[in-house]
Amino acid sequence: MKSAIIVFPGTNRERDMAIALERVSGRKPAMVFHRETALPAGVDLVVLPGGFSHGDYLRCGAMAAQSPIMRAVRDFAAAGGLVLGVCNGFQILTEAGLLPGALLRNATLRFLSMDCHMRVERADTPFTSHWQKGAVFRSPMAHGDGNYFCDDETLARLNGEGLVAFRYATPEGAITAAANRNGARDHIAGILSPNLRICGLMPHPEDLVDPLMGGTDGLPLFTSLLDSLATA
Amino acid sequence: MKARVTIMPKNGVLDPQGKAIGHALEGLGFSGVAEVRAGKVIELELAETDPAKAQAAAEDMARRLLANTVIESFRVELA
């Protein structure tokens, strides 16, 4: 697995992401600055990490989505490359039009920094194959704008085509309003592109990949990716 | 010439910021405020002197960057 992490001004979770990727693959990911116009040769996974790119000016991810490197990321995605966007990375993917919908201010207007639980909605994707469908895992989250929104038509398509990857749930797996702290539409925490090669989610599984971090609940995301690339 | 782009959350899109402002107004004793919607205004100083071209350029800027048309609508006025 040769991965690249895109670093924008204001990105701050790139090192957490690098730890998770290196832990499963044994290879240090390449850090690629937003002004670059090409990805390193042979990259098979591109990750947009969390943070506050360009100070969240205008809208979260709006400036980053227009960065020079995003043209290369778009081409990479169009060629079927694997792209993961976490938190601000998810916001950037929606702003770039690589995933549908948008992330609004949390319904409570509060920045949410806490653990959440997510239910895995399908296990037959490169991002989720090391979980069972319906599995629930814990993950830290930290965002002010994580309230997923899309119109009725898009929601029907996401649900109809099975493109919801993760939903906020209780630790027991129940989908309740209380477990959906940011107010996301239909409890959506993470979604997939129609070809299942692009995934964006708000919480941070990369911050729970080592017993020293308090658990390894987020590890299956990364072992799934490694596995899908090893068998590709 | 100057263009003013007004960006508003679309109808039906939750506007928690507007809601919070509404609650604060209520707290200050202003009654009868049925709904508050909060958007933003961006002013552009354009080199273009042809109004039709300036309008078209500002609308293109709004569509591609200034507004996210998934959740926001926009209006361009020239001054």
From TrEMBL, chain A:
Its EC number is 6.3.5.3, 3.5.1.2. It is found in: Cytoplasm. It catalyses: N(2)-formyl-N(1)-(5-phospho-beta-D-ribosyl)glycinamide + L-glutamine + ATP + H2O = 2-formamido-N(1)-(5-O-phospho-beta-D-ribosyl)acetamidine + L-glutamate + ADP + phosphate + H(+); L-glutamine + H2O = L-glutamate + NH4(+). It comes from Falsiroseomonas tokyonensis. Its main location: cytoplasm. This is Phosphoribosylformylglycinamidine synthase subunit PurQ. Part of the FGAM synthase complex composed of 1 PurL, 1 PurQ and 2 PurS subunits. InterPro entries: PRibForGlyAmidine_synth_PurQ. Pathway: Purine metabolism; IMP biosynthesis via de novo pathway; 5-amino-1-(5-phospho-D-ribosyl)imidazole from N(2)-formyl-N(1)-(5-phospho-D-ribosyl)glycinamide: step 1/2. The gene is purQ. Keywords: ATP-binding, Cytoplasm, Glutamine amidotransferase, Hydrolase, Ligase, Nucleotide-binding, Purine biosynthesis. The keyword Signal does not apply. It comes from the Bacteria. The active site is at 87 (nucleophile), 204, 206. SMART domains: GATase_5. Part of the phosphoribosylformylglycinamidine synthase complex involved in the purines biosynthetic pathway. Catalyzes the ATP-dependent conversion of formylglycinamide ribonucleotide (FGAR) and glutamine to yield formylglycinamidine ribonucleotide (FGAM) and glutamate. The FGAM synthase complex is composed of three subunits. PurQ produces an ammonia molecule by converting glutamine to glutamate. PurL transfers the ammonia molecule to FGAR to form FGAM in an ATP-dependent manner. GO terms for molecular function: glutaminase activity; phosphoribosylformylglycinamidine synthase activity.
UniProtKB/TrEMBL annotation, chain B:
Its EC number is 6.3.5.3. InterPro entries: PurS (IPR003850). It is found in: Cytoplasm. The keyword Cytoplasm applies. Belongs to the PurS family. NCBIfam families: phosphoribosylformylglycinamidine synthase subunit PurS, PRK05974.1. This is Phosphoribosylformylglycinamidine synthase subunit PurS.
